[in-house]
Amino acid sequence: MDVLSFFEPYPLEKIKDLQQGDPTLIVNAHTHFAHYQKNWMDNTYQLAIIGVPEARNTVGNEGAIFAPDEIRKQFYKLYSWGTALSIVDLGNLKIGETCEDTYEILSEVLVFFIERDVVPIILGGGNDLVFANYMAYQKMEQVVNMVSVDSLFDLNPNAPKMNSQSYLTSILLEEPSYLFNYAQVGYQTYLNSPREVKEMESLFFETYRLGLIRQDMEEVEPIVRNADLLSIDISCVRKGDAPGHPHSSPHGFYGEELCQIAMYAGVSDKLSSIGIYEYSPSIDYQDQTSQLIAHVIWYFIEGFRRRIGDTHFKEKDQYLKYSVPVSGHVEDLVFFKSKRSGRWWVIVPVTSKQSQVVQKYYLPCSKRDYDMACKDMISDRWWNAFKKFNH
């Protein structure tokens, strides 16, 4: 597969213009620009930056086609403070004759990198590109957990065609389905109908209101840790921090809170792709939104640098095990805590309908879940997972 044939390179001249101070310290010193290297795939990359200037299926945000390069302008000004990572910037995907062509090309490119354990960072473009991201896992026949940071549920079964506000419906209609779990972080109740909220609940999806999440941002970490795919609609940030979206709200996450979520995503060993969507440079104020997105990418990379590989339970002696008796349950709730990272998991029993064999699912959780069990209470996180797996 000639991956580079699908891309327009990002001009090196623009990078040189951005350099300030010692070029060995800035982020671009650790980034390889594929189009300007011979035998570029001989390198072992860890991250791949992919711009996708596709916005034909956005709802009132066609300016998102200009987002990738505006984000790069800010990203390549930033300094790297840790050990060097090998990052490749492919440039911008050549969009197809139709949006469907773009989805197909993008999904093939994502498969190429994910199968090689290279984590793609997608710079959209519209939120409908999440559908193409999902398609990549479908093509690999890999079950996928998705987490979306968004103020809206992108469910609109009455839309005449798939768009940035209905892509989730299209994913749900795909057969065979490889969607194992879906979680939405930061939805704003007044922007979504009661019907949509009930539909999400009926599908056993995890939904977390903005106000609830902001009470304790650390509770986002186990949600994101369970994801293979993370998508961020920049409208999840309040307009004062990210004005570059035509439908953003006065309410939302603060910029630093989104950076914290990105850090959690980077640290997660399980997460294998991330995308940031719906930024429109033409309505941005003094590059405020592009700077924020650049910082989000920086924090994701900083988190990635800290991955320690403790989510696969290969070394049992690296975990502490806690069994907690809870009223009304025959068996104790069993928790595990990583000695290396301090992260927590809880066992959820999953009964096979065919064989009636009970299997164990290691659900990422927080110390709060353990503390609740010690007080003879079971968290909503555990109950929601149990109902989903055994309904």
The string of secondary-structure elements, in order, is EHEEHEHEHEHEHEHHEHEHEEEEHH
Find the count of extended strands (DSSP E, 2+ residues): 14
Largest sheet report: 10 strands, mixed
The CATH homology group name of the largest domain: Ureohydrolase domain
How far apart are the termini? 43 Å
CATH class of the largest domain: Alpha Beta
Oligomer: single chain
Q: Could you report the average pLDDT, rounded to the nearest whole number?
A: 92
Number of H- or I-type helical stretches: 12
Number of domains: 2
Tell me the helix content: 25-40%
* The CATH topology of the largest domain: Arginase, Chain A
Give a quick summary of the entry.
The protein is α/β, with parallel strands linked by helices and 391 residues long. The N and C termini lie far apart (43 Å).
Structure description:
It contains twelve helices and 14 strands. It has 391 residues and is α/β, with parallel strands linked by helices. The chain is globular. The chain folds into two domains: 303 residues, 3-Layer(aba) Sandwich (Arginase, Chain A); 75 residues, no CATH class. Strand 6, helix 5 and strand 7 form a beta-alpha-beta unit. The strands form two sheets. Strands 1, 2, 3, 4, 5, 6, 7, 8, 9 and 10 form a ten-stranded mixed beta sheet that branches.
Keywords:
391 residues; alpha/beta; Arginase, Chain A; 2 domains; ten-stranded mixed beta sheet; four-stranded antiparallel beta sheet; 14 strands; globular
Secondary-structure blueprint of this entry?
Blueprint (H helix, E strand, L loop, with lengths): L6 E2 L3 H7 L12 E3 L13 E6 L14 H9 L11 E7 L5 H16 L4 E6 L4 H11 L4 E6 L17 H7 L5 E9 L6 H9 L3 E4 H6 L4 H6 L3 E5 L21 H13 L5 E5 L10 H18 L13 E6 L8 E6 L5 E8 L6 E8 L1 H8 L5 H11 L1
Parallel strand pairs: 2-4, 3-4, 3-5, 5-10, 6-7, 6-9, 7-8, 9-10
Antiparallel strand pairs: 1-4, 11-12, 12-13, 13-14
Helix pairs in contact: 2-10, 3-4, 4-5, 9-10
